[in-house]
Design goal:
heterodimer; A: 375 residues; alpha+beta; 9-stranded antiparallel β-sheet; 4 helices; B: alpha+beta; 4-stranded mixed β-sheet; 18% strand; globular
Chain lengths: 375, 262
Protein backbone atom coordinates (compact mmCIF):
# COMPACT_ATOMS: atom_id res chain seq x y z
CA UNK A 1 0.00 0.00 0.00
CA UNK A 2 2.83 2.34 0.81
CA UNK A 3 4.32 1.81 -2.59
CA UNK A 4 1.02 2.44 -4.29
CA UNK A 5 0.48 5.59 -2.27
CA UNK A 6 3.96 6.78 -3.16
CA UNK A 7 3.39 6.08 -6.81
CA UNK A 8 0.12 7.95 -6.95
CA UNK A 9 1.67 10.89 -5.14
CA UNK A 10 4.44 11.11 -7.71
CA UNK A 11 1.93 10.67 -10.47
CA UNK A 12 -0.11 13.51 -9.05
CA UNK A 13 2.98 15.66 -8.75
CA UNK A 14 3.90 14.78 -12.29
CA UNK A 15 0.44 15.63 -13.46
CA UNK A 16 0.59 18.95 -11.67
CA UNK A 17 3.95 19.70 -13.19
CA UNK A 18 2.75 18.78 -16.64
CA UNK A 19 -0.29 20.99 -16.20
CA UNK A 20 1.89 23.88 -15.09
CA UNK A 21 4.14 23.38 -18.06
CA UNK A 22 1.22 23.25 -20.43
CA UNK A 23 -0.16 26.43 -18.95
CA UNK A 24 3.22 28.09 -19.37
CA UNK A 25 3.48 27.03 -22.99
CA UNK A 26 -0.02 28.22 -23.65
CA UNK A 27 0.76 31.57 -22.11
CA UNK A 28 3.89 31.87 -24.19
CA UNK A 29 2.00 30.97 -27.31
CA UNK A 30 -0.63 33.47 -26.49
CA UNK A 31 2.05 36.09 -26.00
CA UNK A 32 3.68 35.25 -29.28
CA UNK A 33 0.31 35.40 -30.92
CA UNK A 34 -0.29 38.75 -29.33
CA UNK A 35 3.13 39.89 -30.42
CA UNK A 36 2.45 38.80 -33.89
CA UNK A 37 -0.82 40.61 -33.86
CA UNK A 38 0.85 43.75 -32.68
CA UNK A 39 3.67 43.33 -35.15
CA UNK A 40 1.20 42.62 -37.88
CA UNK A 41 -0.60 45.76 -36.97
CA UNK A 42 2.60 47.67 -36.57
CA UNK A 43 4.09 46.51 -39.83
CA UNK A 44 1.00 47.42 -41.70
CA UNK A 45 1.06 50.97 -40.38
CA UNK A 46 4.78 51.44 -40.00
CA UNK A 47 7.28 53.29 -42.17
CA UNK A 48 10.90 52.53 -41.28
CA UNK A 49 14.02 54.59 -41.91
CA UNK A 50 17.17 52.54 -41.39
CA UNK A 51 20.70 53.85 -41.87
CA UNK A 52 22.33 50.71 -40.58
CA UNK A 53 23.33 52.51 -37.38
CA UNK A 54 19.95 53.94 -36.37
CA UNK A 55 16.41 52.75 -37.13
CA UNK A 56 13.33 54.99 -36.83
CA UNK A 57 9.76 53.70 -36.92
CA UNK A 58 6.93 56.02 -37.93
CA UNK A 59 3.23 55.33 -37.47
CA UNK A 60 1.62 56.07 -40.83
CA UNK A 61 -1.79 56.50 -39.25
CA UNK A 62 -0.77 59.44 -37.13
CA UNK A 63 2.28 60.47 -39.16
CA UNK A 64 4.28 60.58 -35.94
CA UNK A 65 7.60 59.00 -35.04
CA UNK A 66 6.96 56.00 -32.81
CA UNK A 67 10.34 54.67 -31.75
CA UNK A 68 14.10 54.95 -32.22
CA UNK A 69 16.53 52.03 -32.13
CA UNK A 70 20.30 52.23 -32.28
CA UNK A 71 23.50 52.68 -30.33
CA UNK A 72 22.59 49.74 -28.15
CA UNK A 73 19.33 51.22 -26.89
CA UNK A 74 15.70 51.57 -27.96
CA UNK A 75 13.02 54.02 -26.90
CA UNK A 76 9.58 55.17 -27.79
CA UNK A 77 9.80 58.71 -29.06
CA UNK A 78 7.37 61.15 -30.65
CA UNK A 79 8.43 64.75 -31.36
CA UNK A 80 5.43 67.05 -31.77
CA UNK A 81 4.79 70.79 -31.79
CA UNK A 82 2.94 72.71 -29.11
CA UNK A 83 2.48 76.40 -28.36
CA UNK A 84 1.99 78.50 -25.27
CA UNK A 85 -0.55 81.26 -25.31
CA UNK A 86 1.35 84.44 -24.36
CA UNK A 87 -0.21 86.34 -21.52
CA UNK A 88 -1.22 89.87 -22.35
CA UNK A 89 -0.58 91.08 -18.81
CA UNK A 90 -3.99 92.64 -18.51
CA UNK A 91 -5.53 90.18 -16.10
CA UNK A 92 -4.09 90.69 -12.63
CA UNK A 93 -5.13 87.40 -11.11
CA UNK A 94 -4.41 85.32 -14.19
CA UNK A 95 -0.90 86.56 -14.81
CA UNK A 96 -0.32 88.99 -11.96
CA UNK A 97 -0.26 91.85 -14.42
CA UNK A 98 2.83 90.62 -16.25
CA UNK A 99 2.59 89.84 -19.95
CA UNK A 100 4.91 87.81 -22.14
CA UNK A 101 7.35 89.76 -24.28
CA UNK A 102 10.97 90.16 -25.25
CA UNK A 103 12.16 89.79 -21.66
CA UNK A 104 9.48 87.65 -20.05
CA UNK A 105 7.96 84.21 -20.74
CA UNK A 106 4.58 84.27 -18.99
CA UNK A 107 2.44 81.49 -20.56
CA UNK A 108 -1.29 81.34 -20.21
CA UNK A 109 -2.03 77.74 -21.17
CA UNK A 110 -0.49 75.39 -23.70
CA UNK A 111 -1.90 73.76 -26.81
CA UNK A 112 -0.70 70.81 -28.84
CA UNK A 113 -0.65 71.89 -32.44
CA UNK A 114 -3.17 69.23 -33.35
CA UNK A 115 -5.53 69.89 -30.45
CA UNK A 116 -8.28 72.42 -30.45
CA UNK A 117 -8.46 72.47 -26.71
CA UNK A 118 -5.92 73.49 -24.14
CA UNK A 119 -3.46 70.85 -23.06
CA UNK A 120 -1.91 72.72 -20.15
CA UNK A 121 1.13 71.50 -18.32
CA UNK A 122 -0.90 71.70 -15.10
CA UNK A 123 -1.47 68.49 -13.09
CA UNK A 124 -3.82 66.08 -14.80
CA UNK A 125 -2.51 67.15 -18.17
CA UNK A 126 -2.06 64.22 -20.50
CA UNK A 127 0.48 64.47 -23.23
CA UNK A 128 -0.34 63.73 -26.81
CA UNK A 129 1.54 60.51 -26.21
CA UNK A 130 -0.68 59.46 -23.40
CA UNK A 131 -3.82 60.50 -25.20
CA UNK A 132 -2.79 58.60 -28.30
CA UNK A 133 -1.34 55.56 -26.61
CA UNK A 134 -2.96 55.57 -23.18
CA UNK A 135 -1.14 54.78 -19.92
CA UNK A 136 1.91 56.57 -18.51
CA UNK A 137 4.85 57.14 -20.89
CA UNK A 138 5.26 54.29 -23.29
CA UNK A 139 2.26 52.15 -22.42
CA UNK A 140 0.11 50.26 -24.89
CA UNK A 141 1.68 51.02 -28.17
CA UNK A 142 -1.73 50.76 -29.79
CA UNK A 143 -3.29 53.68 -31.53
CA UNK A 144 -6.84 54.02 -30.26
CA UNK A 145 -9.45 53.72 -32.97
CA UNK A 146 -10.26 57.03 -34.51
CA UNK A 147 -6.96 58.68 -33.70
CA UNK A 148 -6.68 60.93 -36.71
CA UNK A 149 -3.45 61.91 -38.48
CA UNK A 150 -1.44 64.43 -36.54
CA UNK A 151 1.05 65.13 -39.29
CA UNK A 152 1.29 64.44 -43.00
CA UNK A 153 4.22 62.12 -43.54
CA UNK A 154 6.50 61.80 -46.59
CA UNK A 155 9.44 59.39 -46.69
CA UNK A 156 12.56 59.91 -48.83
CA UNK A 157 15.12 57.13 -48.95
CA UNK A 158 18.52 56.96 -50.62
CA UNK A 159 22.10 55.80 -50.26
CA UNK A 160 23.37 58.61 -48.03
CA UNK A 161 20.37 60.34 -46.53
CA UNK A 162 17.01 59.05 -45.22
CA UNK A 163 14.32 61.61 -44.49
CA UNK A 164 10.86 61.66 -42.92
CA UNK A 165 9.14 64.94 -43.77
CA UNK A 166 6.26 65.78 -41.43
CA UNK A 167 3.88 68.65 -41.96
CA UNK A 168 2.01 69.50 -38.74
CA UNK A 169 0.76 72.80 -40.18
CA UNK A 170 1.90 74.93 -43.07
CA UNK A 171 3.86 76.96 -40.55
CA UNK A 172 5.23 74.07 -38.48
CA UNK A 173 7.17 71.28 -40.20
CA UNK A 174 9.86 68.76 -39.25
CA UNK A 175 12.36 66.85 -41.36
CA UNK A 176 13.80 63.95 -39.40
CA UNK A 177 17.00 62.82 -41.09
CA UNK A 178 19.45 59.93 -40.84
CA UNK A 179 22.89 60.20 -42.43
CA UNK A 180 25.00 57.25 -43.51
CA UNK A 181 27.62 56.51 -40.91
CA UNK A 182 26.24 58.86 -38.25
CA UNK A 183 24.58 57.82 -34.99
CA UNK A 184 22.78 61.11 -34.38
CA UNK A 185 19.24 61.70 -35.65
CA UNK A 186 18.96 65.17 -37.20
CA UNK A 187 15.65 66.99 -36.65
CA UNK A 188 15.33 70.07 -38.85
CA UNK A 189 12.47 72.23 -37.56
CA UNK A 190 10.87 75.10 -39.47
CA UNK A 191 8.44 77.39 -37.65
CA UNK A 192 6.70 80.51 -38.93
CA UNK A 193 5.32 82.82 -39.90
CA UNK A 194 3.41 82.25 -36.64
CA UNK A 195 -0.29 82.98 -37.29
CA UNK A 196 -1.81 85.68 -35.09
CA UNK A 197 -5.20 86.15 -36.69
CA UNK A 198 -6.76 84.63 -33.56
CA UNK A 199 -5.36 87.60 -31.65
CA UNK A 200 -3.14 85.38 -29.49
CA UNK A 201 0.60 85.70 -29.10
CA UNK A 202 2.33 82.32 -29.33
CA UNK A 203 5.53 80.72 -28.12
CA UNK A 204 6.16 77.59 -30.10
CA UNK A 205 7.96 74.58 -28.61
CA UNK A 206 9.10 71.22 -29.94
CA UNK A 207 8.13 68.49 -27.46
CA UNK A 208 10.08 65.23 -27.40
CA UNK A 209 7.88 62.68 -25.65
CA UNK A 210 9.62 59.41 -24.74
CA UNK A 211 9.24 56.41 -22.48
CA UNK A 212 12.33 57.14 -20.44
CA UNK A 213 11.66 57.05 -16.73
CA UNK A 214 13.54 60.21 -15.95
CA UNK A 215 11.35 61.42 -13.13
CA UNK A 216 11.62 65.10 -12.22
CA UNK A 217 15.20 65.68 -13.29
CA UNK A 218 17.10 66.46 -16.47
CA UNK A 219 20.49 67.90 -17.36
CA UNK A 220 21.28 71.04 -19.35
CA UNK A 221 24.62 72.51 -20.37
CA UNK A 222 26.31 75.48 -18.77
CA UNK A 223 27.70 77.56 -21.62
CA UNK A 224 28.51 74.46 -23.57
CA UNK A 225 30.78 73.11 -20.85
CA UNK A 226 29.66 70.79 -18.07
CA UNK A 227 26.12 69.48 -17.80
CA UNK A 228 24.16 70.62 -14.75
CA UNK A 229 21.41 68.64 -13.06
CA UNK A 230 18.00 70.34 -12.94
CA UNK A 231 15.07 69.20 -10.80
CA UNK A 232 11.53 70.29 -11.55
CA UNK A 233 10.05 72.82 -9.11
CA UNK A 234 13.25 72.84 -7.08
CA UNK A 235 16.21 75.12 -6.48
CA UNK A 236 19.33 73.81 -4.74
CA UNK A 237 20.05 77.00 -2.85
CA UNK A 238 16.67 78.25 -1.63
CA UNK A 239 13.12 77.17 -0.84
CA UNK A 240 11.30 77.71 -4.10
CA UNK A 241 7.68 78.80 -4.14
CA UNK A 242 6.81 77.77 -7.67
CA UNK A 243 4.19 80.06 -9.22
CA UNK A 244 4.99 79.35 -12.86
CA UNK A 245 4.86 75.57 -13.53
CA UNK A 246 6.11 76.04 -17.11
CA UNK A 247 8.24 79.20 -17.15
CA UNK A 248 9.68 78.47 -13.72
CA UNK A 249 11.22 75.26 -14.97
CA UNK A 250 12.80 76.62 -18.14
CA UNK A 251 16.60 76.76 -18.40
CA UNK A 252 18.97 78.13 -21.06
CA UNK A 253 20.29 75.58 -23.56
CA UNK A 254 23.38 76.72 -25.42
CA UNK A 255 24.43 73.24 -26.49
CA UNK A 256 22.39 70.33 -25.12
CA UNK A 257 19.95 68.85 -22.61
CA UNK A 258 19.39 65.21 -21.76
CA UNK A 259 17.15 62.85 -19.82
CA UNK A 260 18.72 60.12 -17.77
CA UNK A 261 16.76 57.12 -16.62
CA UNK A 262 17.00 56.58 -12.89
CA UNK A 263 20.01 58.83 -12.64
CA UNK A 264 21.07 59.82 -9.15
CA UNK A 265 22.14 63.31 -8.13
CA UNK A 266 25.64 62.70 -9.37
CA UNK A 267 24.37 61.55 -12.73
CA UNK A 268 25.48 57.96 -12.25
CA UNK A 269 23.04 55.65 -13.94
CA UNK A 270 21.83 52.18 -13.11
CA UNK A 271 22.69 49.24 -15.35
CA UNK A 272 20.58 49.26 -18.49
CA UNK A 273 19.54 52.85 -18.03
CA UNK A 274 19.15 54.93 -21.16
CA UNK A 275 20.04 58.54 -21.91
CA UNK A 276 18.26 60.63 -24.54
CA UNK A 277 19.98 63.90 -25.48
CA UNK A 278 18.87 66.84 -27.61
CA UNK A 279 21.68 69.01 -29.03
CA UNK A 280 20.82 72.50 -30.26
CA UNK A 281 22.50 74.54 -32.97
CA UNK A 282 21.83 77.86 -31.18
CA UNK A 283 20.95 79.21 -27.73
CA UNK A 284 17.38 78.21 -26.86
CA UNK A 285 15.25 77.63 -23.73
CA UNK A 286 14.27 74.14 -22.63
CA UNK A 287 12.53 72.19 -19.86
CA UNK A 288 11.34 68.75 -18.82
CA UNK A 289 7.84 69.25 -17.45
CA UNK A 290 6.99 65.55 -17.25
CA UNK A 291 8.91 62.34 -16.80
CA UNK A 292 10.31 61.19 -20.14
CA UNK A 293 9.64 64.50 -21.84
CA UNK A 294 11.84 67.35 -23.08
CA UNK A 295 10.69 70.53 -24.76
CA UNK A 296 12.72 73.22 -26.51
CA UNK A 297 11.38 76.67 -27.39
CA UNK A 298 11.89 77.41 -31.08
CA UNK A 299 10.13 80.66 -31.97
CA UNK A 300 8.07 83.38 -30.27
CA UNK A 301 5.64 86.04 -31.44
CA UNK A 302 3.92 88.18 -28.84
CA UNK A 303 1.45 90.98 -29.46
CA UNK A 304 2.14 93.24 -26.49
CA UNK A 305 5.18 94.86 -24.92
CA UNK A 306 6.13 93.30 -21.60
CA UNK A 307 6.90 96.78 -20.19
CA UNK A 308 10.49 95.81 -19.35
CA UNK A 309 12.28 98.31 -21.57
CA UNK A 310 12.10 97.35 -25.25
CA UNK A 311 8.86 99.29 -25.71
CA UNK A 312 7.93 96.99 -28.59
CA UNK A 313 6.03 93.75 -28.84
CA UNK A 314 8.09 90.78 -30.00
CA UNK A 315 6.11 90.89 -33.20
CA UNK A 316 8.16 90.88 -36.34
CA UNK A 317 5.74 92.31 -38.85
CA UNK A 318 7.72 95.51 -38.67
CA UNK A 319 10.87 93.73 -39.70
CA UNK A 320 12.15 96.53 -41.88
CA UNK A 321 12.17 94.54 -45.07
CA UNK A 322 11.37 96.23 -48.36
CA UNK A 323 7.58 96.01 -48.25
CA UNK A 324 6.08 96.27 -44.84
CA UNK A 325 3.39 93.69 -45.18
CA UNK A 326 6.01 91.10 -44.38
CA UNK A 327 4.08 88.03 -43.14
CA UNK A 328 6.49 87.57 -40.27
CA UNK A 329 9.74 85.80 -39.62
CA UNK A 330 10.39 82.14 -40.29
CA UNK A 331 12.92 80.34 -38.12
CA UNK A 332 14.67 77.16 -39.20
CA UNK A 333 17.18 75.18 -37.19
CA UNK A 334 18.43 71.75 -36.29
CA UNK A 335 18.45 69.50 -33.29
CA UNK A 336 20.45 66.33 -33.06
CA UNK A 337 19.00 63.47 -31.02
CA UNK A 338 21.23 60.90 -29.44
CA UNK A 339 19.98 57.80 -27.66
CA UNK A 340 22.55 55.59 -25.91
CA UNK A 341 23.01 53.41 -22.86
CA UNK A 342 23.58 55.93 -20.09
CA UNK A 343 27.03 54.65 -19.18
CA UNK A 344 28.45 55.28 -22.64
CA UNK A 345 26.39 58.30 -23.64
CA UNK A 346 28.82 61.09 -22.79
CA UNK A 347 31.37 60.42 -25.55
CA UNK A 348 29.00 60.44 -28.56
CA UNK A 349 27.11 63.39 -27.13
CA UNK A 350 30.22 65.45 -26.57
CA UNK A 351 31.62 64.61 -29.98
CA UNK A 352 28.34 65.44 -31.73
CA UNK A 353 28.14 68.71 -29.80
CA UNK A 354 31.55 69.70 -31.12
CA UNK A 355 30.69 68.69 -34.70
CA UNK A 356 27.43 70.61 -34.59
CA UNK A 357 29.26 73.64 -33.24
CA UNK A 358 32.06 73.50 -35.84
CA UNK A 359 30.54 72.41 -39.14
CA UNK A 360 32.79 72.13 -42.20
CA UNK A 361 33.37 75.42 -44.05
CA UNK A 362 32.25 74.95 -47.66
CA UNK A 363 33.22 76.85 -50.79
CA UNK A 364 31.94 76.19 -54.30
CA UNK A 365 33.17 76.98 -57.76
CA UNK A 366 33.54 75.71 -61.31
CA UNK A 367 35.88 72.81 -61.97
CA UNK A 368 39.21 74.46 -62.79
CA UNK A 369 40.33 74.07 -66.38
CA UNK A 370 44.00 73.27 -66.90
CA UNK A 371 46.00 74.70 -69.80
CA UNK A 372 45.88 72.11 -72.52
CA UNK A 373 43.57 69.92 -70.48
CA UNK A 374 40.98 68.33 -72.71
CA UNK A 375 38.15 68.79 -70.25
CA UNK B 1 42.73 92.67 -49.49
CA UNK B 2 39.74 91.50 -47.50
CA UNK B 3 40.28 90.77 -43.82
CA UNK B 4 38.36 89.73 -40.72
CA UNK B 5 38.37 93.04 -38.84
CA UNK B 6 34.75 94.00 -39.51
CA UNK B 7 33.50 90.55 -38.53
CA UNK B 8 35.42 90.72 -35.29
CA UNK B 9 33.94 94.12 -34.55
CA UNK B 10 30.40 92.99 -35.31
CA UNK B 11 30.74 89.85 -33.17
CA UNK B 12 32.24 91.82 -30.30
CA UNK B 13 29.35 94.27 -30.52
CA UNK B 14 26.95 91.33 -30.33
CA UNK B 15 28.38 90.25 -27.00
CA UNK B 16 25.84 92.70 -25.52
CA UNK B 17 23.05 90.65 -23.95
CA UNK B 18 20.51 92.36 -26.20
CA UNK B 19 22.27 90.87 -29.19
CA UNK B 20 22.11 87.38 -27.73
CA UNK B 21 18.63 87.37 -26.22
CA UNK B 22 16.76 89.46 -28.78
CA UNK B 23 15.79 92.09 -26.22
CA UNK B 24 16.56 95.02 -28.52
CA UNK B 25 14.34 97.30 -30.58
CA UNK B 26 13.69 96.15 -34.11
CA UNK B 27 15.86 98.79 -35.75
CA UNK B 28 18.77 97.84 -33.50
CA UNK B 29 18.32 94.20 -34.46
CA UNK B 30 18.37 95.24 -38.12
CA UNK B 31 21.63 97.04 -37.48
CA UNK B 32 23.13 93.93 -35.86
CA UNK B 33 22.09 91.94 -38.92
CA UNK B 34 23.66 94.46 -41.28
CA UNK B 35 26.99 94.55 -39.44
CA UNK B 36 27.29 90.79 -39.07
CA UNK B 37 26.37 90.26 -42.72
CA UNK B 38 29.00 92.71 -43.95
CA UNK B 39 31.65 91.20 -41.67
CA UNK B 40 30.71 87.66 -42.65
CA UNK B 41 30.93 88.39 -46.36
CA UNK B 42 34.44 89.84 -45.99
CA UNK B 43 35.68 86.98 -43.81
CA UNK B 44 34.26 84.47 -46.26
CA UNK B 45 36.29 86.13 -49.01
CA UNK B 46 39.41 85.61 -46.89
CA UNK B 47 38.71 81.93 -46.40
CA UNK B 48 37.74 81.37 -50.04
CA UNK B 49 40.93 83.05 -51.27
CA UNK B 50 43.10 80.99 -48.93
CA UNK B 51 41.39 77.75 -50.01
CA UNK B 52 41.61 78.76 -53.66
CA UNK B 53 45.33 79.40 -53.47
CA UNK B 54 45.94 76.14 -51.67
CA UNK B 55 43.91 74.20 -54.22
CA UNK B 56 45.68 75.93 -57.09
CA UNK B 57 49.04 75.54 -55.41
CA UNK B 58 48.39 71.86 -54.87
CA UNK B 59 47.79 71.12 -58.53
CA UNK B 60 51.39 71.94 -59.54
CA UNK B 61 53.33 68.71 -59.17
CA UNK B 62 50.36 67.25 -57.28
CA UNK B 63 49.36 63.63 -57.15
CA UNK B 64 48.53 61.71 -60.35
CA UNK B 65 49.71 64.58 -62.42
CA UNK B 66 47.61 66.91 -60.32
CA UNK B 67 44.90 67.10 -62.88
CA UNK B 68 42.11 65.89 -60.69
CA UNK B 69 42.74 68.07 -57.71
CA UNK B 70 44.74 67.89 -54.55
CA UNK B 71 45.09 64.95 -52.26
CA UNK B 72 44.07 66.49 -48.97
CA UNK B 73 46.28 65.25 -46.28
CA UNK B 74 48.46 63.38 -48.73
CA UNK B 75 50.68 64.05 -51.74
CA UNK B 76 52.26 67.41 -52.37
CA UNK B 77 49.24 69.17 -51.03
CA UNK B 78 50.06 67.77 -47.63
CA UNK B 79 52.61 70.42 -46.79
CA UNK B 80 50.11 73.11 -47.70
CA UNK B 81 47.31 71.37 -45.81
CA UNK B 82 49.58 70.85 -42.89
CA UNK B 83 50.65 74.47 -43.03
CA UNK B 84 47.01 75.40 -43.05
CA UNK B 85 46.60 73.09 -40.08
CA UNK B 86 49.45 74.79 -38.29
CA UNK B 87 48.13 78.16 -39.25
CA UNK B 88 44.75 77.31 -37.76
CA UNK B 89 46.33 76.45 -34.47
CA UNK B 90 47.92 79.90 -34.17
CA UNK B 91 46.14 82.27 -31.86
CA UNK B 92 45.43 84.70 -34.71
CA UNK B 93 42.90 82.32 -36.25
CA UNK B 94 41.80 83.58 -39.66
CA UNK B 95 44.68 86.04 -39.87
CA UNK B 96 47.02 83.08 -39.99
CA UNK B 97 44.87 81.46 -42.66
CA UNK B 98 45.33 84.54 -44.80
CA UNK B 99 49.05 84.35 -44.22
CA UNK B 100 49.15 80.66 -45.09
CA UNK B 101 47.28 81.39 -48.27
CA UNK B 102 49.87 83.95 -49.30
CA UNK B 103 52.67 81.52 -48.49
CA UNK B 104 51.06 78.80 -50.60
CA UNK B 105 50.79 81.19 -53.51
CA UNK B 106 54.42 82.21 -53.15
CA UNK B 107 55.38 78.55 -52.99
CA UNK B 108 53.43 77.89 -56.13
CA UNK B 109 55.36 80.56 -57.99
CA UNK B 110 58.59 78.97 -56.88
CA UNK B 111 57.52 75.54 -57.94
CA UNK B 112 56.20 76.33 -61.38
CA UNK B 113 58.56 74.51 -63.67
CA UNK B 114 59.41 76.82 -66.61
CA UNK B 115 60.55 73.90 -68.69
CA UNK B 116 57.16 72.25 -68.27
CA UNK B 117 58.87 68.97 -67.69
CA UNK B 118 57.59 68.65 -64.05
CA UNK B 119 54.27 66.97 -63.18
CA UNK B 120 50.78 68.53 -63.83
CA UNK B 121 49.80 71.67 -65.72
CA UNK B 122 49.51 74.88 -63.70
CA UNK B 123 45.99 76.25 -63.44
CA UNK B 124 46.12 79.41 -65.42
CA UNK B 125 43.56 81.50 -63.62
CA UNK B 126 42.17 81.81 -60.08
CA UNK B 127 39.20 79.59 -59.32
CA UNK B 128 36.23 81.77 -58.32
CA UNK B 129 35.20 80.08 -55.07
CA UNK B 130 32.01 81.23 -53.33
CA UNK B 131 30.45 80.65 -49.90
CA UNK B 132 26.70 80.17 -49.61
CA UNK B 133 24.73 81.42 -46.60
CA UNK B 134 21.41 79.87 -47.41
CA UNK B 135 22.33 76.24 -47.82
CA UNK B 136 19.60 75.42 -45.29
CA UNK B 137 16.98 76.51 -47.78
CA UNK B 138 18.75 74.95 -50.78
CA UNK B 139 20.01 78.27 -52.14
CA UNK B 140 23.48 78.82 -53.57
CA UNK B 141 24.34 81.17 -56.39
CA UNK B 142 27.40 79.31 -57.63
CA UNK B 143 26.12 75.74 -57.72
CA UNK B 144 22.62 76.46 -58.99
CA UNK B 145 23.94 78.59 -61.82
CA UNK B 146 26.57 76.03 -62.83
CA UNK B 147 24.12 73.11 -62.68
CA UNK B 148 21.44 75.01 -64.57
CA UNK B 149 23.98 75.28 -67.40
CA UNK B 150 24.90 71.62 -67.18
CA UNK B 151 28.38 72.41 -65.85
CA UNK B 152 30.31 70.55 -63.19
CA UNK B 153 31.43 72.05 -59.92
CA UNK B 154 34.16 71.90 -57.36
CA UNK B 155 33.32 71.68 -53.64
CA UNK B 156 36.07 72.58 -51.18
CA UNK B 157 35.39 71.59 -47.56
CA UNK B 158 37.55 72.74 -44.68
CA UNK B 159 37.33 70.92 -41.34
CA UNK B 160 37.90 73.27 -38.36
CA UNK B 161 38.00 70.38 -35.88
CA UNK B 162 41.23 68.80 -34.76
CA UNK B 163 40.06 65.32 -35.64
CA UNK B 164 39.15 63.71 -38.91
CA UNK B 165 35.45 63.52 -39.54
CA UNK B 166 32.92 62.06 -41.90
CA UNK B 167 30.00 64.26 -42.77
CA UNK B 168 27.28 64.46 -45.37
CA UNK B 169 27.68 67.47 -47.65
CA UNK B 170 24.52 68.75 -49.37
CA UNK B 171 24.87 70.89 -52.46
CA UNK B 172 21.90 72.80 -53.95
CA UNK B 173 21.50 72.17 -57.67
CA UNK B 174 19.05 72.77 -60.46
CA UNK B 175 17.74 69.71 -62.30
CA UNK B 176 16.82 71.77 -65.34
CA UNK B 177 19.49 70.04 -67.46
CA UNK B 178 20.01 66.67 -65.79
CA UNK B 179 19.22 64.62 -62.71
CA UNK B 180 22.20 62.34 -63.05
CA UNK B 181 25.42 63.36 -61.36
CA UNK B 182 28.75 61.78 -60.62
CA UNK B 183 30.75 62.66 -57.51
CA UNK B 184 34.45 62.06 -57.06
CA UNK B 185 36.73 62.63 -54.10
CA UNK B 186 40.21 64.09 -53.72
CA UNK B 187 41.89 61.00 -55.10
CA UNK B 188 39.47 60.88 -58.00
CA UNK B 189 37.64 58.02 -56.34
CA UNK B 190 33.97 57.56 -57.08
CA UNK B 191 31.58 58.59 -54.30
CA UNK B 192 27.98 57.44 -53.99
CA UNK B 193 25.88 60.55 -54.50
CA UNK B 194 22.16 60.99 -53.87
CA UNK B 195 19.78 63.49 -55.40
CA UNK B 196 17.14 64.70 -52.91
CA UNK B 197 14.06 66.61 -53.93
CA UNK B 198 13.50 69.82 -52.00
CA UNK B 199 10.76 69.58 -49.34
CA UNK B 200 7.59 71.63 -49.85
CA UNK B 201 8.38 73.80 -46.84
CA UNK B 202 11.68 74.78 -48.38
CA UNK B 203 9.97 75.64 -51.65
CA UNK B 204 7.57 77.85 -49.72
CA UNK B 205 10.51 79.49 -47.92
CA UNK B 206 12.25 80.14 -51.22
CA UNK B 207 9.16 81.89 -52.55
CA UNK B 208 8.91 83.94 -49.37
CA UNK B 209 12.57 84.94 -49.58
CA UNK B 210 12.31 85.83 -53.24
CA UNK B 211 9.27 88.03 -52.52
CA UNK B 212 10.84 89.75 -49.52
CA UNK B 213 14.33 90.21 -50.91
CA UNK B 214 13.49 90.86 -54.55
CA UNK B 215 16.99 92.16 -55.14
CA UNK B 216 18.66 89.13 -53.60
CA UNK B 217 21.07 87.59 -56.12
CA UNK B 218 20.82 84.15 -54.70
CA UNK B 219 19.21 81.52 -56.88
CA UNK B 220 17.21 78.70 -55.40
CA UNK B 221 17.85 75.03 -56.24
CA UNK B 222 15.06 72.50 -56.71
CA UNK B 223 17.15 69.57 -55.46
CA UNK B 224 20.24 68.75 -53.43
CA UNK B 225 23.16 66.44 -54.13
CA UNK B 226 24.28 64.67 -50.96
CA UNK B 227 27.52 62.74 -50.60
CA UNK B 228 29.65 61.64 -47.66
CA UNK B 229 32.90 63.61 -47.34
CA UNK B 230 35.91 62.37 -45.42
CA UNK B 231 37.76 65.39 -44.04
CA UNK B 232 41.22 65.46 -42.43
CA UNK B 233 41.81 67.18 -39.08
CA UNK B 234 42.28 70.95 -39.45
CA UNK B 235 42.56 70.47 -43.18
CA UNK B 236 40.58 70.55 -46.38
CA UNK B 237 39.53 68.27 -49.20
CA UNK B 238 38.09 68.96 -52.64
CA UNK B 239 35.29 67.08 -54.37
CA UNK B 240 34.02 67.22 -57.92
CA UNK B 241 30.42 66.93 -59.05
CA UNK B 242 29.92 66.33 -62.75
CA UNK B 243 26.59 66.08 -64.62
CA UNK B 244 26.01 62.91 -66.58
CA UNK B 245 23.94 62.98 -69.69
CA UNK B 246 23.02 60.42 -72.35
CA UNK B 247 24.96 57.17 -72.41
CA UNK B 248 26.90 57.89 -69.25
CA UNK B 249 23.65 58.50 -67.42
CA UNK B 250 22.12 55.38 -68.90
CA UNK B 251 25.20 53.44 -67.86
CA UNK B 252 23.97 54.17 -64.40
CA UNK B 253 26.18 56.74 -62.79
CA UNK B 254 26.35 56.61 -59.09
CA UNK B 255 23.63 59.10 -58.40
CA UNK B 256 20.43 57.86 -56.84
CA UNK B 257 17.34 60.07 -57.03
CA UNK B 258 16.06 59.03 -53.64
CA UNK B 259 12.62 57.46 -54.03
CA UNK B 260 9.88 59.37 -52.22
CA UNK B 261 6.61 58.01 -50.91
CA UNK B 262 3.88 59.58 -48.92
Amino acid sequence: QKQEAGQSATQAADAREAAAEAAEVAAEEEEVQQGWLENEEKNEHTAVLDSGLVRLEFDTRTGLLRSVHGGGASARLAPTFAWYNSSDGLDSDENRGQGSGAYVFRPNGRYDLSATHETSAAPGWRSLWERLWGGGGGGGGRVPAGAGPVARLEIVEGVNVWEARQTFADWATLVTRLHRGQAAVEVEWTVGPIPIDDGLGKEVVLVYDSDLGSGAQFWSDSNGREMLRRVRDFRPTWELNQTEPAAGNYYPLTAAMYLLEGGDAGGAAAEGARQLAVLTDRAQGGASLRSGQMEVMLHRRTLRDDLRGVDEALNETACGCRNCDCPGLVARGRHWLLLAPAREAARPRRTAQQELNDPPVLAFGPIPRQIGASS
Amino acid sequence: GPNTESLEEAVSLLQHHDGITGTAKQHVVNDYHRRVHAGLKEAQAVVASALERLIRGATVGGTAGGTTGPAAGGGSAAPAARRLAMAQEGPAGLHAVQHAGREAAAEQEERVDPTGSGGGNPIDSPIPLESCDWLNITACNATVHLSSRGQGMLVAAYNPLAWSRETVVRVPVSTAVTCMWKASGPEGEDLPVQLLPVPNTTLALQQLMAAVNATCPTTFGDAELAFVAQLPPLGYATFFLEPQSGAAARAGSSSDDGSSRE
